[in-house]
Amino acid sequence: MLPEYPAAGMSWTAATPGRDWQADGVAGTSKVLGVQKVKAPGGTFNALAVRSTLAQRGYPWGSGTRTSWFSPGRGLVKLVFRHGDGSVSNVELVK
Question: What is the pTM of this model?
Answer without folding.
Answer: 0.83
